[in-house]
Amino acid sequence: WTAVYALTSVLLGLLPAAAALPALLVLRYGIGLGIGLAASIVLATLTGLAVYALLILAGVRALGAGLRAGSHPVHGPAAWRAWAVERLMDTARAQLFPLYASLATPGWLRALGMKVGRGVEASTVLALPGMTTVGDGAFLADDTMIGSYELGGGRLRIAAARVGKRAFLGNSGMAAAGSRVPKRGLVGVLSAAPKRAEAGSSWLGMPPMRLPRTPEEGDRSRTYAPPVRLRWARAAVELCRIVPVLCSAALAVAGVFAFAALAGAYGIPAAAFLTGPLLAVGGVLACVVTAAAKWLLVGRFRAGEHPLWSGFVWRGELADTFVEVLAVPWLIGAVGGTPLMNLWLRTLGARVGRGAWCETYWLPEADLVAVGAGASVNRGCVLQTHLFHDRIMRLGPVELGPGATLGPHAIALPGAV
Predict the structure, then answer these.
(1) What are the extents of the domains in the chain?
(2) 191-211: per-residue pLDDT in tens?
(3) What contacts 78, CB < 8 A, 6 or more positions away?
(4) Nearest 5°: phi and psi at 282?
(5) Is the pTM of this model over 0.90?
(6) How far apart are CA 401 and CA 374, in angstroms?
Protein backbone atom coordinates (compact mmCIF):
# COMPACT_ATOMS: atom_id res chain seq x y z
CA TRP A 1 0.00 0.00 0.00
CA THR A 2 2.96 2.34 0.41
CA ALA A 3 3.51 2.15 -3.35
CA VAL A 4 -0.20 2.78 -3.96
CA TYR A 5 -0.11 5.95 -1.87
CA ALA A 6 3.05 7.12 -3.65
CA LEU A 7 1.62 6.45 -7.11
CA THR A 8 -1.63 8.19 -6.17
CA SER A 9 0.31 11.28 -5.09
CA VAL A 10 2.03 11.39 -8.47
CA LEU A 11 -1.25 10.99 -10.34
CA LEU A 12 -2.96 13.71 -8.30
CA GLY A 13 -0.06 16.02 -9.05
CA LEU A 14 -0.63 15.46 -12.77
CA LEU A 15 -4.26 16.61 -12.68
CA PRO A 16 -3.46 20.27 -13.55
CA ALA A 17 -1.43 19.09 -16.55
CA ALA A 18 -4.25 16.79 -17.63
CA ALA A 19 -6.66 19.74 -17.54
CA ALA A 20 -4.19 22.02 -19.31
CA LEU A 21 -3.82 19.69 -22.31
CA PRO A 22 -7.33 20.19 -23.75
CA ALA A 23 -7.05 23.89 -22.93
CA LEU A 24 -3.87 24.13 -25.02
CA LEU A 25 -5.56 22.28 -27.87
CA VAL A 26 -8.46 24.74 -27.80
CA LEU A 27 -6.00 27.64 -27.82
CA ARG A 28 -4.08 26.21 -30.76
CA TYR A 29 -7.13 25.45 -32.88
CA GLY A 30 -8.80 28.72 -31.94
CA ILE A 31 -5.83 30.70 -33.22
CA GLY A 32 -5.63 28.45 -36.28
CA LEU A 33 -9.29 29.03 -37.10
CA GLY A 34 -8.77 32.78 -36.96
CA ILE A 35 -11.13 33.60 -34.08
CA GLY A 36 -8.49 35.82 -32.50
CA LEU A 37 -5.98 35.44 -29.69
CA ALA A 38 -8.14 37.03 -26.98
CA ALA A 39 -11.19 34.87 -27.76
CA SER A 40 -8.99 31.78 -27.95
CA ILE A 41 -7.53 32.50 -24.50
CA VAL A 42 -11.03 32.88 -23.04
CA LEU A 43 -12.23 29.60 -24.56
CA ALA A 44 -9.05 27.77 -23.53
CA THR A 45 -9.29 29.06 -19.95
CA LEU A 46 -12.93 28.03 -19.59
CA THR A 47 -12.09 24.63 -21.07
CA GLY A 48 -9.25 24.10 -18.61
CA LEU A 49 -11.39 25.04 -15.62
CA ALA A 50 -14.27 22.83 -16.77
CA VAL A 51 -12.04 19.82 -17.39
CA TYR A 52 -10.30 20.22 -14.03
CA ALA A 53 -13.63 20.50 -12.21
CA LEU A 54 -14.90 17.37 -13.98
CA LEU A 55 -11.74 15.45 -13.04
CA ILE A 56 -12.13 16.45 -9.40
CA LEU A 57 -15.83 15.59 -9.47
CA ALA A 58 -15.25 12.20 -11.07
CA GLY A 59 -12.40 11.36 -8.69
CA VAL A 60 -14.26 12.34 -5.52
CA ARG A 61 -17.43 10.54 -6.59
CA ALA A 62 -15.62 7.36 -7.65
CA LEU A 63 -13.32 7.12 -4.64
CA GLY A 64 -15.96 8.20 -2.13
CA ALA A 65 -18.64 5.77 -3.29
CA GLY A 66 -19.44 3.26 -0.58
CA LEU A 67 -17.11 4.68 2.08
CA ARG A 68 -18.45 3.62 5.46
CA ALA A 69 -17.97 5.00 8.93
CA GLY A 70 -15.63 3.03 11.14
CA SER A 71 -12.00 2.35 11.96
CA HIS A 72 -9.98 1.06 9.01
CA PRO A 73 -6.34 -0.09 8.70
CA VAL A 74 -4.17 2.60 7.12
CA HIS A 75 -2.79 0.06 4.66
CA GLY A 76 -6.12 -0.83 3.14
CA PRO A 77 -8.57 0.28 0.45
CA ALA A 78 -10.97 2.27 2.66
CA ALA A 79 -8.22 4.37 4.24
CA TRP A 80 -6.56 4.97 0.88
CA ARG A 81 -9.83 6.11 -0.67
CA ALA A 82 -10.60 8.50 2.20
CA TRP A 83 -7.08 9.95 2.00
CA ALA A 84 -7.31 10.39 -1.78
CA VAL A 85 -10.71 12.09 -1.54
CA GLU A 86 -9.35 14.65 0.93
CA ARG A 87 -6.34 15.32 -1.29
CA LEU A 88 -8.69 15.99 -4.21
CA MET A 89 -10.88 18.26 -2.08
CA ASP A 90 -7.80 20.14 -0.91
CA THR A 91 -6.32 20.74 -4.35
CA ALA A 92 -9.72 21.86 -5.66
CA ARG A 93 -9.71 24.74 -3.16
CA ALA A 94 -6.59 26.16 -4.80
CA GLN A 95 -7.15 25.35 -8.46
CA LEU A 96 -10.86 26.23 -8.43
CA PHE A 97 -10.60 29.09 -5.94
CA PRO A 98 -13.07 31.39 -7.78
CA LEU A 99 -15.76 28.75 -7.26
CA TYR A 100 -15.59 29.00 -3.46
CA ALA A 101 -17.26 31.56 -1.16
CA SER A 102 -19.82 32.15 -3.90
CA LEU A 103 -23.41 31.36 -4.83
CA ALA A 104 -22.08 28.37 -6.76
CA THR A 105 -20.31 26.76 -3.80
CA PRO A 106 -23.30 24.87 -2.28
CA GLY A 107 -24.15 23.38 -5.67
CA TRP A 108 -20.53 22.34 -6.18
CA LEU A 109 -20.41 20.68 -2.76
CA ARG A 110 -23.68 18.86 -3.43
CA ALA A 111 -22.28 17.59 -6.73
CA LEU A 112 -19.31 16.20 -4.80
CA GLY A 113 -21.70 14.23 -2.58
CA MET A 114 -22.13 16.49 0.46
CA LYS A 115 -25.58 16.99 1.99
CA VAL A 116 -26.00 20.78 1.91
CA GLY A 117 -29.18 22.57 2.94
CA ARG A 118 -30.80 25.69 1.52
CA GLY A 119 -29.26 29.11 1.98
CA VAL A 120 -25.84 27.80 3.02
CA GLU A 121 -22.78 30.05 2.71
CA ALA A 122 -19.55 28.07 2.30
CA SER A 123 -15.99 29.15 1.67
CA THR A 124 -12.89 26.96 1.22
CA VAL A 125 -14.19 23.99 3.20
CA LEU A 126 -12.23 20.73 3.42
CA ALA A 127 -14.35 17.66 4.08
CA LEU A 128 -15.17 14.07 3.28
CA PRO A 129 -18.35 14.85 1.32
CA GLY A 130 -20.10 11.56 2.01
CA MET A 131 -19.63 12.02 5.76
CA THR A 132 -20.75 15.65 5.93
CA THR A 133 -24.17 17.21 6.44
CA VAL A 134 -24.69 20.98 6.51
CA GLY A 135 -28.04 22.32 7.66
CA ASP A 136 -30.12 25.13 6.16
CA GLY A 137 -28.66 28.61 6.55
CA ALA A 138 -25.31 27.46 7.97
CA PHE A 139 -22.12 29.47 7.40
CA LEU A 140 -18.75 27.79 6.79
CA ALA A 141 -15.91 30.33 6.89
CA ASP A 142 -12.48 30.12 5.25
CA ASP A 143 -10.40 26.95 5.62
CA THR A 144 -12.92 25.02 7.71
CA MET A 145 -12.57 21.26 8.16
CA ILE A 146 -15.61 18.99 8.55
CA GLY A 147 -15.72 15.25 9.03
CA SER A 148 -12.05 14.77 8.21
CA TYR A 149 -10.52 11.37 8.91
CA GLU A 150 -8.50 10.78 12.09
CA LEU A 151 -5.26 8.78 12.26
CA GLY A 152 -3.94 6.80 15.21
CA GLY A 153 -2.38 3.44 16.00
CA GLY A 154 -2.06 2.49 12.36
CA ARG A 155 -5.77 2.98 11.75
CA LEU A 156 -7.88 5.62 10.05
CA ARG A 157 -11.22 6.55 11.58
CA ILE A 158 -14.16 7.88 9.57
CA ALA A 159 -17.41 9.13 11.06
CA ALA A 160 -20.23 11.47 10.11
CA ALA A 161 -20.11 15.14 11.10
CA ARG A 162 -22.96 17.62 11.06
CA VAL A 163 -23.28 21.40 11.02
CA GLY A 164 -26.71 22.40 12.28
CA LYS A 165 -29.20 24.87 10.84
CA ARG A 166 -27.99 28.49 10.92
CA ALA A 167 -24.80 27.40 12.68
CA PHE A 168 -21.49 29.21 12.18
CA LEU A 169 -18.11 27.49 11.81
CA GLY A 170 -15.35 30.11 11.97
CA ASN A 171 -12.06 30.45 10.09
CA SER A 172 -9.96 27.27 10.39
CA GLY A 173 -12.65 25.82 12.65
CA MET A 174 -13.08 22.06 12.85
CA ALA A 175 -16.02 19.72 13.19
CA ALA A 176 -14.17 16.44 13.65
CA ALA A 177 -15.43 13.00 12.74
CA GLY A 178 -18.40 12.20 14.95
CA SER A 179 -18.93 15.77 16.15
CA ARG A 180 -21.74 18.26 15.60
CA VAL A 181 -22.03 22.03 15.47
CA PRO A 182 -25.38 22.67 17.20
CA LYS A 183 -28.31 24.42 15.57
CA ARG A 184 -27.76 28.21 15.72
CA GLY A 185 -24.43 27.45 17.39
CA LEU A 186 -21.05 29.06 16.83
CA VAL A 187 -17.58 27.53 16.75
CA GLY A 188 -14.93 30.23 16.67
CA VAL A 189 -11.64 30.74 14.85
CA LEU A 190 -9.14 27.86 15.18
CA SER A 191 -11.63 26.04 17.41
CA ALA A 192 -13.10 22.55 17.54
CA ALA A 193 -16.76 21.63 17.76
CA PRO A 194 -17.74 19.78 20.96
CA LYS A 195 -19.03 16.22 20.85
CA ARG A 196 -22.33 17.36 22.35
CA ALA A 197 -23.75 20.84 22.73
CA GLU A 198 -27.14 22.45 23.13
CA ALA A 199 -28.75 24.56 20.43
CA GLY A 200 -27.62 28.18 20.27
CA SER A 201 -24.41 27.62 22.27
CA SER A 202 -21.07 29.15 21.26
CA TRP A 203 -17.62 27.59 21.63
CA LEU A 204 -14.03 28.75 21.39
CA GLY A 205 -10.69 26.97 21.61
CA MET A 206 -9.30 23.47 21.44
CA PRO A 207 -10.56 21.74 23.53
CA PRO A 208 -13.68 23.88 23.15
CA MET A 209 -14.83 26.11 26.00
CA ARG A 210 -18.29 27.62 26.31
CA LEU A 211 -18.36 31.23 25.09
CA PRO A 212 -21.04 33.64 26.37
CA ARG A 213 -22.56 35.35 23.34
CA THR A 214 -25.76 37.08 22.33
CA PRO A 215 -26.53 36.65 18.60
CA GLU A 216 -27.36 39.80 16.66
CA GLU A 217 -30.35 39.93 14.34
CA GLY A 218 -29.64 42.15 11.37
CA ASP A 219 -31.90 43.05 8.47
CA ARG A 220 -32.99 39.62 7.19
CA SER A 221 -33.19 40.94 3.63
CA ARG A 222 -29.43 41.49 3.89
CA THR A 223 -28.51 38.36 5.84
CA TYR A 224 -30.72 35.26 5.49
CA ALA A 225 -33.55 36.21 3.11
CA PRO A 226 -32.25 38.44 0.30
CA PRO A 227 -34.60 39.53 -2.48
CA VAL A 228 -34.12 38.23 -6.01
CA ARG A 229 -32.54 41.48 -7.21
CA LEU A 230 -29.70 41.09 -4.68
CA ARG A 231 -29.14 37.50 -5.77
CA TRP A 232 -28.77 38.62 -9.38
CA ALA A 233 -26.49 41.49 -8.39
CA ARG A 234 -24.24 39.18 -6.40
CA ALA A 235 -24.14 36.67 -9.24
CA ALA A 236 -23.06 39.41 -11.64
CA VAL A 237 -20.19 40.45 -9.38
CA GLU A 238 -19.11 36.86 -8.80
CA LEU A 239 -19.05 36.14 -12.52
CA CYS A 240 -16.28 38.74 -12.70
CA ARG A 241 -14.03 36.32 -10.78
CA ILE A 242 -13.17 34.83 -14.14
CA VAL A 243 -11.28 38.06 -14.96
CA PRO A 244 -8.18 37.34 -12.81
CA VAL A 245 -8.14 33.78 -14.15
CA LEU A 246 -8.12 35.16 -17.69
CA CYS A 247 -5.39 37.63 -16.75
CA SER A 248 -3.25 34.79 -15.45
CA ALA A 249 -3.82 32.77 -18.62
CA ALA A 250 -2.99 35.80 -20.77
CA LEU A 251 0.28 36.31 -18.88
CA ALA A 252 1.18 32.65 -19.43
CA VAL A 253 0.49 32.90 -23.17
CA ALA A 254 2.44 36.17 -23.39
CA GLY A 255 5.36 34.50 -21.60
CA VAL A 256 5.38 31.62 -24.09
CA PHE A 257 5.30 34.03 -27.03
CA ALA A 258 8.10 36.11 -25.52
CA PHE A 259 10.22 33.00 -24.98
CA ALA A 260 9.63 31.92 -28.58
CA ALA A 261 10.61 35.37 -29.83
CA LEU A 262 13.81 35.35 -27.77
CA ALA A 263 14.65 31.82 -28.91
CA GLY A 264 14.13 32.81 -32.55
CA ALA A 265 16.31 35.90 -32.21
CA TYR A 266 19.11 34.68 -29.92
CA GLY A 267 18.78 30.90 -29.69
CA ILE A 268 17.30 28.57 -27.10
CA PRO A 269 20.22 28.77 -24.59
CA ALA A 270 19.95 32.57 -24.43
CA ALA A 271 16.16 32.40 -24.14
CA ALA A 272 16.46 29.86 -21.32
CA PHE A 273 18.92 32.16 -19.53
CA LEU A 274 16.41 35.01 -19.77
CA THR A 275 13.48 32.93 -18.51
CA GLY A 276 14.00 34.13 -14.93
CA PRO A 277 13.82 37.85 -15.76
CA LEU A 278 10.89 37.12 -18.08
CA LEU A 279 8.92 35.44 -15.30
CA ALA A 280 9.85 38.25 -12.91
CA VAL A 281 8.34 40.78 -15.31
CA GLY A 282 5.19 38.66 -15.48
CA GLY A 283 5.05 38.55 -11.69
CA VAL A 284 5.37 42.32 -11.39
CA LEU A 285 2.61 42.82 -13.96
CA ALA A 286 0.37 40.41 -12.04
CA CYS A 287 0.95 42.36 -8.83
CA VAL A 288 0.30 45.72 -10.50
CA VAL A 289 -2.99 44.48 -11.94
CA THR A 290 -4.00 42.99 -8.58
CA ALA A 291 -3.20 46.15 -6.63
CA ALA A 292 -5.08 48.25 -9.18
CA ALA A 293 -8.08 45.93 -8.88
CA LYS A 294 -8.08 46.27 -5.09
CA TRP A 295 -8.08 50.07 -5.15
CA LEU A 296 -10.66 50.26 -7.94
CA LEU A 297 -13.04 47.72 -6.39
CA VAL A 298 -13.01 48.67 -2.70
CA GLY A 299 -10.68 51.63 -2.23
CA ARG A 300 -9.47 51.91 1.37
CA PHE A 301 -10.87 49.49 3.94
CA ARG A 302 -12.19 51.14 7.09
CA ALA A 303 -13.49 49.76 10.38
CA GLY A 304 -17.24 49.18 10.33
CA GLU A 305 -19.99 46.67 9.64
CA HIS A 306 -21.46 45.40 6.37
CA PRO A 307 -24.16 42.72 5.86
CA LEU A 308 -23.39 39.66 3.76
CA TRP A 309 -25.72 40.72 0.96
CA SER A 310 -24.01 44.02 0.14
CA GLY A 311 -21.84 45.17 -2.73
CA PHE A 312 -18.96 45.97 -0.39
CA VAL A 313 -18.63 42.32 0.67
CA TRP A 314 -18.88 40.98 -2.88
CA ARG A 315 -16.34 43.45 -4.23
CA GLY A 316 -13.97 42.56 -1.40
CA GLU A 317 -14.22 38.88 -2.31
CA LEU A 318 -13.54 39.76 -5.94
CA ALA A 319 -10.43 41.72 -4.97
CA ASP A 320 -9.27 38.74 -2.89
CA THR A 321 -9.70 36.49 -5.92
CA PHE A 322 -7.23 38.69 -7.81
CA VAL A 323 -4.74 38.16 -4.98
CA GLU A 324 -5.14 34.38 -4.75
CA VAL A 325 -5.44 33.62 -8.47
CA LEU A 326 -3.12 36.22 -10.01
CA ALA A 327 -0.60 37.79 -7.62
CA VAL A 328 0.16 34.76 -5.43
CA PRO A 329 0.90 32.18 -8.17
CA TRP A 330 2.95 34.61 -10.23
CA LEU A 331 5.10 36.20 -7.53
CA ILE A 332 3.82 36.78 -4.00
CA GLY A 333 3.71 33.12 -3.03
CA ALA A 334 7.49 32.94 -3.51
CA VAL A 335 8.67 36.14 -1.77
CA GLY A 336 7.60 35.60 1.84
CA GLY A 337 10.05 37.07 4.35
CA THR A 338 11.67 39.37 1.78
CA PRO A 339 11.54 43.14 1.22
CA LEU A 340 9.33 42.42 -1.80
CA MET A 341 6.60 41.07 0.48
CA ASN A 342 6.71 44.22 2.61
CA LEU A 343 6.55 46.37 -0.52
CA TRP A 344 3.56 44.38 -1.78
CA LEU A 345 1.66 44.75 1.48
CA ARG A 346 2.35 48.50 1.55
CA THR A 347 1.02 48.69 -2.01
CA LEU A 348 -2.28 47.27 -0.74
CA GLY A 349 -2.43 49.80 2.08
CA ALA A 350 -0.77 48.06 5.04
CA ARG A 351 1.58 49.99 7.32
CA VAL A 352 4.76 47.90 7.55
CA GLY A 353 7.69 49.27 9.53
CA ARG A 354 11.40 49.11 8.72
CA GLY A 355 13.03 45.74 9.19
CA ALA A 356 9.76 43.87 9.66
CA TRP A 357 9.75 40.19 8.74
CA CYS A 358 6.48 39.19 7.08
CA GLU A 359 6.16 35.63 5.82
CA THR A 360 2.46 35.73 4.99
CA TYR A 361 0.28 37.55 2.50
CA TRP A 362 -2.95 36.82 4.39
CA LEU A 363 -3.94 40.35 5.29
CA PRO A 364 -7.56 40.32 4.04
CA GLU A 365 -8.06 44.07 4.58
CA ALA A 366 -4.50 45.38 4.45
CA ASP A 367 -5.45 49.01 5.21
CA LEU A 368 -6.46 47.95 8.73
CA VAL A 369 -3.10 46.30 9.53
CA ALA A 370 -0.06 47.92 11.16
CA VAL A 371 3.17 45.92 11.55
CA GLY A 372 5.76 47.74 13.64
CA ALA A 373 9.46 48.12 12.93
CA GLY A 374 11.35 44.89 13.51
CA ALA A 375 8.18 42.86 14.08
CA SER A 376 7.95 39.25 12.87
CA VAL A 377 4.91 37.68 11.24
CA ASN A 378 5.64 34.01 10.68
CA ARG A 379 4.49 31.61 7.98
CA GLY A 380 0.85 30.68 7.78
CA CYS A 381 -0.30 33.59 9.95
CA VAL A 382 -3.52 35.46 9.26
CA LEU A 383 -3.95 39.06 10.35
CA GLN A 384 -7.71 38.62 10.42
CA THR A 385 -9.27 42.07 10.26
CA HIS A 386 -12.84 40.84 9.84
CA LEU A 387 -15.29 38.40 11.40
CA PHE A 388 -18.54 37.16 9.82
CA HIS A 389 -20.77 35.65 12.51
CA ASP A 390 -24.50 36.40 12.22
CA ARG A 391 -23.82 37.07 8.52
CA ILE A 392 -22.55 40.56 9.29
CA MET A 393 -19.00 41.46 8.28
CA ARG A 394 -17.34 43.32 11.15
CA LEU A 395 -14.06 45.06 10.29
CA GLY A 396 -11.51 46.19 12.86
CA PRO A 397 -7.79 47.00 13.03
CA VAL A 398 -4.94 44.65 13.93
CA GLU A 399 -1.67 46.09 15.20
CA LEU A 400 1.68 44.45 15.90
CA GLY A 401 3.97 46.69 17.90
CA PRO A 402 7.69 47.22 17.21
CA GLY A 403 9.60 43.99 17.77
CA ALA A 404 6.45 41.91 18.31
CA THR A 405 6.25 38.30 17.10
CA LEU A 406 3.28 36.37 15.75
CA GLY A 407 4.07 32.65 15.77
CA PRO A 408 3.54 30.25 12.85
CA HIS A 409 -0.09 29.69 11.81
CA ALA A 410 -1.43 32.10 14.43
CA ILE A 411 -4.51 34.21 13.75
CA ALA A 412 -4.82 37.75 15.10
CA LEU A 413 -8.46 38.82 15.39
CA PRO A 414 -9.96 42.29 14.84
CA GLY A 415 -9.01 44.70 17.61
CA ALA A 416 -5.88 42.75 18.57
CA VAL A 417 -2.82 44.79 19.60
Answers:
(1) 2-195, 229-412
(2) 999 888 899 999 999 889 998
(3) 67, 68, 70, 72, 156, 158
(4) -60, -40
(5) yes
(6) 9
